[in-house]
Amino acid sequence: MFLTKKITIQTACCFYMLFFSITIFAQQPADFVNPFIGTSNYGATFPGPIAPRGMASISPFNVAGSQNALEKDSQWLSNPYVNENTFLTGFSQVNISGVGCPDLGVILVMPTTGMVETDHLKYGCTYSNEIAKAAYYSVQLDKYNVKGEFTASKRVGVSKFTFPKGQSNVLLNLGLGLTNEEGAMVKIVSSTEIEGMRSVGSFCYNSPEDAYPVYFVAKFSKPANKFGVWKKPSKYKGLEAQWMTYNGKTRMMDNTIKTVVGDSIGTYFSYQFDKEESVEVKIGVSYVSIENARENLEKETGNKSFDAVYKETYNEWNEELSKILVEGGSKDDKTIFYTALYHTLIHPNTLNDVNGEYPEIKRKKIGKTLGTRYTVFSLWDTYRNMHPLTSLVYPKQQSDMIKSMLDMYDENGWLPKWELNSTETFTMVGDPASIVIVDACLKGIQDFDIYKAYYAMLKGADQIENNPLRPGLKDYIEKGYLTTNDRGPVSTTQEYNASDYAISLLAKALGKKEDYKRFTNRSLSYRKLYDKELQLLRPRTANGKWYEPFDPVAGANFQENVGFIEGNAWQYAFMVPHDIVGLKKLMGGDKAFSDQLQKVFDSKQFDMANEPDIAYPYLFNYVKGEEWKAQETVKKLVKEYFQNKPKGLPGNDDTGTMSAWLVYSMIGIYPISPGDPIYAITAPMFHRITIKLDPAYYKKESIVIERQINNDGKIISIELNGKPLNSFFISHEDFVNGKTLKVIQN
Amino acid sequence: MFLTKKITIQTACCFYMLFFSITIFAQQPADFVNPFIGTSNYGATFPGPIAPRGMASISPFNVAGSQNALEKDSQWLSNPYVNENTFLTGFSQVNISGVGCPDLGVILVMPTTGMVETDHLKYGCTYSNEIAKAAYYSVQLDKYNVKGEFTASKRVGVSKFTFPKGQSNVLLNLGLGLTNEEGAMVKIVSSTEIEGMRSVGSFCYNSPEDAYPVYFVAKFSKPANKFGVWKKPSKYKGLEAQWMTYNGKTRMMDNTIKTVVGDSIGTYFSYQFDKEESVEVKIGVSYVSIENARENLEKETGNKSFDAVYKETYNEWNEELSKILVEGGSKDDKTIFYTALYHTLIHPNTLNDVNGEYPEIKRKKIGKTLGTRYTVFSLWDTYRNMHPLTSLVYPKQQSDMIKSMLDMYDENGWLPKWELNSTETFTMVGDPASIVIVDACLKGIQDFDIYKAYYAMLKGADQIENNPLRPGLKDYIEKGYLTTNDRGPVSTTQEYNASDYAISLLAKALGKKEDYKRFTNRSLSYRKLYDKELQLLRPRTANGKWYEPFDPVAGANFQENVGFIEGNAWQYAFMVPHDIVGLKKLMGGDKAFSDQLQKVFDSKQFDMANEPDIAYPYLFNYVKGEEWKAQETVKKLVKEYFQNKPKGLPGNDDTGTMSAWLVYSMIGIYPISPGDPIYAITAPMFHRITIKLDPAYYKKESIVIERQINNDGKIISIELNGKPLNSFFISHEDFVNGKTLKVIQN
Fold it and tell me: Name one GO biological process term (chains A, B) (predicted).
């Protein structure tokens, strides 16, 4: 009897393994993620692991050391990792993805062997055999023959180091970092635990007074044979320096459990191994307190192994990415698509701890949420497509993001502009929060306090004095535009127009007729900056005259210029998506409009790497008969700028904005006028695309976009649920309540 | 009926008040304390409040600012307050009294008015109306018209600021400090509470790796209208500095509860008063943790008012000081006497928190005591008289000090040498812990593990390699002396001799005959350094020859010299108190000895300001018929060097050593040979002195020293319990078991 039983179990086992193997080898959406995409060409993404919208993440840190192609202090460098670089000095535990300013990239863990060396320029080394996947990164450190593997849960980074025989060390460097802020505190709690904090902030060299702490707790799977803290103090000056033989020298403080603070401090945990051995290091982080960091670590990873954490986070990624299933297309197509979708799921990210606590804006107190408090709102970028995408595919997340924005309004008196870990960086211009909220609201995400949101928008739009969101508002309201006395007067006017248009849409929906009229009018004021001769928008001085001399080309490639923020007159000329009909009229009709638009591309003024003009290709849809130009241009741009390689993003990912552009462009629709629930249609790049819809927000389970190709030519017909659509636009309502959107190409 | 009752109560009230008034106005020992004594002439005491052997203390901090006569960075200055200085920049909450190296003097509280100014050179000001008493200090800040009053419990400093109408601020400066260490952390918990830590250490510019944190919690009696943190970051260098408009500038961070770290940080609590108002600030400290600092604050001062805390600590002082009651003498005599006794009750001080926790030596872990863990053992100074005095008057404290020393041995493997807040500073030379322990033990304080103590002493005395207590031990054991290859070879040999003598006494008491013989022999080895021609001790080189050239006068006033530590050949010539008989023989008998001793004084080589020769005056007792010289010299020295004024100490108080010298000298006995329980007798300076004895250690309740004067001349007779003593020495046993020691002068 016994024997029989045993055989049965073995058989079952085999079946299970066979089944398991099949599951493993079938390529899941998460398997197509290539985190190296965007790690070159200033994409500013990082290849290390992160959970969807995770607070913690691990990035190899290879931007310190003159051996590198791009060294962090040699230029305005905003990422902890550059693919071309060769000299690695650790693995940072909190990172921002795809932004244009340096910050975070701190709490650097580094495995070494032999004697403890604390100078990163000395302990850093070259590396090889990098592998990066969703939720996983591994690398071999050449100098030490150490393999590092990394994964992460939402608030905990997990590192696994496999050391050769001999003395091995795990350094925790709290001095080195991508951020320009300095200052840290650390205390070794025991031979398996460290706690501390690191100052970060002054993002984009702004608001240094808002610099803030990130707290952490690190737990080691094996007790150190020896541990300690190092500190390199600042050099003492004056008479007393002559008595200090130790002046400015690094101090090694062995086996101590005291609190140490300083700008340049770190810890070392040393082991003596008589064979190859692995050490796992879990680092929980929190923006509230050390206690919360410890709780985050315990609750999320407790006694879980590296592999268990990896599997959980991999599954999370797979679940999120499976919300859009694509069929057809090459492996590279799928890779750039799912990597882009992955990049849109990094920011905004979770700010609250597992217990719900988070620092309120300005850190005046600790708030508590029952849902998710989101942070990292690069709204000038993301209002254009990232948030609209989130509303469509992840409406619950979008809802929580809006609730987070409204909480910020409660805490701070203003909706966010460029919020980062509960600091308002006031980077960029415009008042884009309104657009994000209206866009989601009009798409049916309405489980938040809409009236509060509405009045919050009105405050930002109407309060003339001391308004941090809309500087220059007095001119804008009185004259209809900002003048050259203000910053980027033309583009900022356009941004305010876009926001006012969104507000007008909500006013209309709420039955606020007066406001509707008022904001509709305000949204068209850009027209006063239209120069008929140039067929471009151009700045006016305070006395209403055109600013002279005016060079429409000046301002490309992020150069400072009088009229525009991060762009030139060409790159902003068409950025009035809510009034393309009006713009066409100004320009003299369809043809003039189309010619001028084409000129942007022909004269190489189109900049794929920045937001103002990224919707341009879709604007051809506004000219009957020229929609093929949109299709052709989008296809060309995707091919040119988005590739399955580190340089495969056109520039800064802008917290997923470039990636969202790609996602939309590959599924064949684009939210052409943010705030307005409408999509422009182009040719999808997969045979079939299934978007799963969240039943809490949408009636249908999913919507399918199908492509029918004859010769990969122009779109000849678009059908919704089998019936001709007769338009290259589709409302969000029609789209999500449809069943199949079929695009037939010649 | 009602009316009658009321009157009765009022009468009772009046009686009570009358009684109370009498109590107040009768001068108690504590009323004679003048904390200004020693605040000039490098006495290095501070005038602010402290409880007996308290961990916390408050000192006005007036050593920062070039307006001052003595500025802390302009020279080797070791005190937070100098009486001649005029520019005050706050009130430090932890301080060391009477030491020769700068440390602590941190956590500076400063009241200001008007706009918040964070630069101490700008907010500092002159002051007036200083009042200093036991447990109380007050001062008027001229610039702000603010009165500051200060008191302290053992672990909590309490400040009371009386502000005029208008904006008032309480600054907490964590950058400025007397210590040369830098680095602090702070977090404002609420509008009435602050928590944080400050790094201190590298005492005497030694052992920077042992720098350590002092944690604190501050509670305010009134919630601030506005609060914040300031930070002056270090200046950023390199390319990025050009984008930092804020580079190196002080940042004001309003109403934030985030953790801030840095070398130059502080907090401000601001108030808007519409009339004169007071704010009380309680600051609890701990060397273990912020939590413990908070518990110390709560348990010791809770809801107590400033006045209640003051009264408690005043009473504690009075109780301690009343252990010796003096009658007769002028007010100045009583003042210098009780102030000296007060100064002997500051260090060693309490290290453990109210819950018993303290950092163990080297801060490898947190220990816990049921008694008191003492710290600040300046043993090279204090073994000579401070500890003997404590054994006599405060034997329970002495017992706990010995237990603390033995705990340090457990923690660190070595008895302490110069222990400071659980760091071993290894300042000065010798192995004085043995002497302290033996002295107490042979005086009957034996409630500790004597055998452990004995073996701890042997380890220090015998372990040749890696012995941090006795460098040069190999030479010492082999040759009998240290050579010019070692530090201060002559004086260090003498110190080892003194320790070995103490060990021999304990060996004898424990019946360890071999050890007794061995250490007795070792204790006499200084004789090999005796130069018959010079009648002085002088250094020998490694090959045994006299070191040439040799200047017996070199080394006075703390100048470095080859043979001696902090002294010259004259100041060390007689520092063999355990072998004066032998020394006399070396010198050629009583007369030669007496002549040579007199020469020290006549040639002005005697240094009252440092320890090696402070017992010299009493050595005349060893020459029959010349005891009057001891009496005369002591009287002269007391008059010359100890006065009721800031300059009233001869130099550094050396954690109470100079003060203990004065206490002994004024009561007419002196522990002439530390370790050996014997006193030399001179003329007491009061009519009657009653020393209360602790019944836990001594049989008698008290011992009385009486003086009978005819013409204030030589002592003509000494009587113990009415019988002639026939000696100018008395054993500790006879003394404490006597009733009255009567000294009759001509």
Answer: glycoprotein catabolic process
Interval A85-97 mean pLDDT: 98
Q: Do the beta carbons of residue B620 and residue B627 sit within 8 Å?
A: yes
H or E element in which residue B478 lies: helix B473-479
**Burial of residue B85, with CB atoms counted within 10 A of its CB: 0-12 exposed, 13-18 middle, 19 or more buried:** buried
* Residues lower than pLDDT 70 in chain B: 1-25
- Compute CA distances A521 → A440, A499, A514, whole Å: 23, 12, 11
- For position B199, what pLDDT does the model report? 98
- Three-state SS across A162-188? EECCEEEEEEEECCCCCCCCCCEEEEE
Q: How far apart are CA B458 and CA B447, in angstroms?
A: 20
Of B209, B254, B259, the CB nearest to A253: B209
The angle at the Cα of B210, spanning B205 to B215, to the nearest 5 degrees, equals 105
Confidence of residue A440 (pLDDT cuts 50, 70, 90): very high
- The residue behind tokens 């002088």 is B538
Strands A740-745, A702-709: parallel, antiparallel or unpaired by DSSP?
parallel
Distance from CA of B285 to the nearest CA of A (A): 15
SS (H, E, C) B132-172: EECCEEEEEECCCCEEEEEEECCCEEEEEEEECCEEEEEEE
Are A315 and A327 contained in the same domain?
no
Are residues B397 and B330 both part of a single domain?
Answer: yes
Q: Say yes or no to pLDDT of A25 above 70.
A: no
**Do B72 and B99 fall into the same domain?**
yes
- Tell me whether residue A235 is in a domain: no
Size of chain B, expressed as the number of residues it contains: 746
Beta strands B377-378 and B357-359 are unpaired
The shortest CB-CB distance from B234 to any of A205, A236, A263 is to: A263
Same domain, A306 and A366: no
- Residue B678 token pair: 């014997």
Residue A342: pLDDT above 50?
Answer: yes
Q: What is the pLDDT of residues A653-694, one digit of tens each?
A: 999 999 999 999 999 999 999 999 999 999 999 999 999 999
Verify that B40 and B155 share a domain, yes or no. Answer: yes
CATH number at residue B586: 3.30.2080.10
Closest CA of chain B from A190, distance in Å: 9
Under a CB-based contact definition with an 8 Å cutoff, are residues A489 and A563 in contact?
yes
Name the minimum distance, in Å, from the CA of B110 to any CA of chain A. 23
| Rounded Cα distance, A472 and A255, in Å | 58
A609 and A704 part of one domain: yes
Question: Is B291 near chain A, with CB under 8 Å?
Answer: no
Report CB contact under 8 Å: B258, A213: yes
Longest dimension (CA), chain B: 101
Considering only CB atoms, B246 lies closest to which of A197, A208, A259, namely: A208
**Residue the block writes with tokens 């790609």:** A662
pLDDT (average), residues A418-429: 92
Which residues have C-beta within 8 Å of that of residue A359, sequence separation ≥ 6? Answer: A212, A287, A288, A351, A366, A367, A421, A422, B257, B258
Q: In chain B, what residues touch A366 (CB-CB under 8 Å)? A: 257
- The pLDDT value recorded for residue A21 is 42
What residues in A contact B239, CB-CB < 8 Å? 73-75
CA distance B288 to chain A (A): 8
Residue A242 domain flag? no
Nearest to B257 among A208, A240, A364 (CB): A364
In whole angstroms, give the CA distance from residue B384 to residue B378: 11
Between the alpha carbon of residue A485 and those of residues A464, A544, A557, the distances in Å are 16, 11, 23
Whether residue A77 contacts residue A70, with contact meaning beta carbons closer than 8 Å, is answered with yes
User: Which pair of structure tokens corresponds to residue A733?
Assistant: 């309502």
Q: How many CA atoms lie within 13 A of B133 on its CB side?
A: 18
Q: Of A283, A304, A284, whose CA–CA distance to A293 is shortest?
A: A284
